[in-house]
Amino acid sequence: MRLAGRVSAAIDVLTEIFERHRPASEALKDWGKAHRFAGSTDRHAIGTLVYDALRRRNSLGFRMGSDAPRALALAGLRDVWGLSTDAIGSMAEEQHGPGKLTVEERTALSRALPADLPVHVAGDVPEWLVASYEKAFGPRAAAEGAALAQRAPVDLRVNLLKAERGQVLSALERFGAIEGPWSPLAVRIAAPGPETRNANVEAEPAHGLGWFEVQDAGSQVAALLSGVEPGMKVADICAGAGGKTLALAAMMKNEGTLVAHDLDRFRLRPIFERLTRAGVTNCEVISAQDKGKLEAAGPFDTVVIDAPCSGSGSWRRKPDAKWRLTPKQFAQRIKDQAQVLEKGFQLAKPGGIILYITCSVLPEENTEQVAAFLSHHKEMRLVPYKQVWARMIGGVAPDSADGAADTLVLTPARHDTDGFFMAVMKKGG
Ligand SMILES: C[S@@+](CC[C@H](N)C(=O)[O-])C[C@H]1O[C@@H](n2cnc3c(N)ncnc32)[C@H](O)[C@@H]1O
Prior knowledge:
Belongs to the class I-like SAM-binding methyltransferase superfamily. RsmB/NOP family. One of its GO terms (molecular function) is RNA methyltransferase activity. This is MFS transporter. InterPro entries: MeTrfase_RsmB-F_NOP2_cat, MeTrfase_RsmB-F_NOP2_dom, RCMT, RsmB-like_ferredoxin, SAM-dependent_MTases_sf. This protein is an alpha/beta fold. It folds into 3 domains: 111 residues, no CATH class; 61 residues, Sun protein, domain 3 (Alpha-Beta Plaits), CATH 3.30.70; 211 residues, Vaccinia Virus protein VP39 (Rossmann fold), CATH 3.40.50. It has 22 helices and 12 strands. Strands 5, 6, 7, 8, 9, 10, 11 and 12 form an 8-stranded mixed beta sheet that branches. The chain has a 4-stranded antiparallel beta sheet with strand order 2-3-1-4, with helices on one face. The site of S-adenosylmethionine has 18 residues, from helix 14 and helix 19.
């Protein structure tokens, strides 16, 4: 396929996503199934344009005066792919292309945008969340939003139960793998562009051997700040597919007890295969159907709560979720977090640690949630994250993106990771 055909396909996929409220990944998969003639390079380029347009829906829509699929795709070619208006115009008129540009489209594609764009446009943030962004980041709200609207690299966590970082770097040399930021276990592969294919690292023998897992460097830091050590009794009570669980098991060197639990047994399902591949031998998986079993396994030295959240810190990777989130869902997540924090409190032993994590940058889910929890539990206190960082990671800990002294917000703009929040809390003692 030539670019013209790929752009038309991207417009069709965006239409499907908007009109039928489909997740982008599913809409793209279905398009591929229905157009078997398209090769993997075509599918990759179409997917790249779809995701680029979704990440920057507000700013691209502002440029065009419309956020219709065609407008977003054309503006994406201009603002993200760097094509000139003339190049877009010629492409559009080719066979299978999206059709001749109108005079209005040409004007919109050629104009310079004003410097003082509102935050929801400059930062590609849903308008109803601007107040939250400003609460977190003050005058840097737009810059933080804009960084969350860029393509993201692929980060891997080296599994020390099976390999060293040097081995993984060598195994993935042809993908241009380099050391990732902050975590001593992080390996990074640069974000792919339209012409550079995604590194399908999970198809590599080194992945099959359990040498690494795909995990953002920020998520790796979150696991490290749990402070867990070999021999401890640890519960990961929102384990999902086990991203943090695997990291915790490696930190424990398979010594001690690790319990992985999740309310949703379907989310938990992939954990079994992942634990086996990673060589984890000290983990017991307890689903919500095993009534009373989690409580009976406690109390725990450390309870890790990787809480359900808006996912705002992952919007580089799941940009459609950014526009799908509703105030009602957001309010529900906040209630869920309060509930799971209570559960964690019950499970932690006196003197134990609770690590509260979200993959969000929004204060309602982060500092405000923790403040509410601490106000109900006078025996809980925050352990400044820099103390734990010094012990577990070493070197100078970065400042939190929201300026907080004791809790840490990592962001793409400030730390070159996905957005994450972590609060380490101690129960009495
Ligand atoms: C952010 S995801 C976990 C991601 C996972 N820890 C990882 O690293 O891949 C949050 C999880 O919390 C689970 N969850 C929500 N409410 C819960 C509750 N009250 N108790 C336990 N798990 C809960 C959800 O099913 C979801 O799998």
